[in-house]
Write a structure and sequence with these properties.
Layout lengths: L4 E2 L2 E2 L4 E3 L8 H9 L4 E3 L3 E2 H5 L3 H6 L9 E6 L3 H14 L4 E6 L4 H4 L11 H14 L4 E8 L7 H10 L4 E8 L10 H10 L4 E4 L5 H11 L3 E4 L7 H13 L8 H19 L1 H16 L6 H7 L5 H17 L7
Parallel strand pairs: 3-4, 3-11, 4-6, 5-6, 6-7, 7-8, 8-9, 9-10, 10-11
Antiparallel strand pairs: 1-2
The protein binds flavin mononucleotide.
The site of flavin mononucleotide (FMN) has 22 residues, from loops.
Length: 333
């Protein structure tokens, strides 16, 4: 498998961390990078919020040097504001790639003609992506779902529109908008797209293990694998996938202590970023993800939601590790 190159950006491997709102901030992205991920994607930002100089959004545009190469995703429904926001990102951020969101299914986004709404109109895609490509220097990519619903699966046409518009790569999530996150991702459509375009195709959807990543590549021929939910509380999944794809080596799962240590690192980075109060609230979901699959963690997971401080959360997790290390079988098989 050759290395993935997106425009002028060469990646060290073909594993990509999916953009995830509320998750892919510098704290988690840096962890994903340290676990070997070839490309990390930032959580989506609204074009209008960028143009209004929204304080929270401006913070979301910050890219740490150590995270690079990084792709920053914008969404919007109108050409003028999308292009202006892309220009802002191009000229004022440290991102390497500008990604356009064409997959977000939530009503708030699609009702503004943004996100997955475009999937019904390949000519709009070509027009919008062309306008962005012509306005910026960084490579432009698109992340899309395969279609709006089962009757409207225009993935091939839509990806061709991205290619015609000068897009540097396309990531395909093998679900329709109507599916939201239900059902199974259809990797056959990813294969169809790969056969019909010459730009790199990044496959996405339901890659939960390193073996899944290999199966997706074998089935679709895709140039890269994008991993979302499989990496939540589990950056080892990214590392193990990189090792499996590049060396054919299937590494074991981390120990509970290893998981909790990285969870605490994640917590401290999030505190640096957002302050203790907000960070601990956000860490509750992450900590529950880090604990997933570990023995006797149900009780701790419940307790997490009562935690308000760094000290409280750290003590809870440390005492869980102490207790679990005393018992023999720590991972549920
Ligand atoms: C919590 C969460 C937030 C997400 N936010 C975004 C986002 O900001 N932009 C985007 O394009 N996709 C977003 N997605 C979709 C993922 O990038 C990915 O396409 C989807 O989860 C399927 O991949 P997976 O099966 O590996 O999770 C999000 C998914 C989750 C679970």
């Amino acid at each position: 498998m050759s290395k993935l190159k997106i425009g002028n950006v060469e990646l060290k491997n073909n594993v990509v961390l999916a953009p995830m709102a509320g998750v892919c901030n510098p704290a988690f992205r840096l962890i994903a990078k340290e676990f070997g991920t070839g490309l990390v994607c930032a959580e989506m930002v609204s074009d209008k919020a960028v143009l209004h100089g929204n304080k929270k959004t401006m913070k979301m545009l910050f890219v740490d040097e150590r995270e690079k190469p990084l792709s920053l995703q914008i969404f919007g429904g109108e050409k003028e504001s999308l292009v202006a926001a892309a220009k802002y990102v191009d000229e004022n951020t440290n991102a390497d790639i500008i990604d356009i969101n064409m997959g977000c299914p939530v009503p708030k986004v699609v009702s503004c003609d943004a996100g997955a709404r475009w999937l019904l109109d390949p000519s709009k895609i070509e027009e919008m992506v062309s306008a962005v490509v012509n306005a910026v220097n960084k490579p432009v990519t698109v992340k899309m779902r395969i279609g709006w619903d089962e009757e409207h699966i225009y993935a091939v046409k839509n990806a061709q529109a991205v290619e015609n518009a000068g897009g540097a790569a396309v990531a395909i999530h093998g679900r329709t908008r109507v599916q939201m996150y239900e059902g199974k991702a259809d990797w056959n459509v990813i294969r169809d797209v790969k056969q019909q375009v010459n730009i790199p195709v990044i496959g996405n959807g339901d890659v939960a293990t390193p073996e899944d990543a290999k199966r997706m590549i074998d089935l679709t021929g895709c140039d890269g694998v994008m991993i979302g939910r499989g990496a939540l509380g589990n950056p080892w999944m990214l590392y193990r996938t990189v090792q499996y794809l590049t060396k054919g080596e299937l590494l074991g799962e981390p120990t509970p202590k290893e998981k909790i240590d990285v969870c605490l690192l994640h917590m401290d980075r999030l505190i640096d970023l957002k302050g203790e109060k907000v960070a601990i609230q956000e860490m509750r979901k992450h900590a529950a993800w880090y604990l997933k699959g570990l023995k006797n963690s149900a009780h701790v997971r419940q307790k997490i939601n009562e935690m308000e401080t760094r000290e409280g959360l750290k003590n809870l997790l440390d005492s869980y590790v102490e207790q679990i290390e005393g018992s023999k079988e720590s991972v549920i098989h």
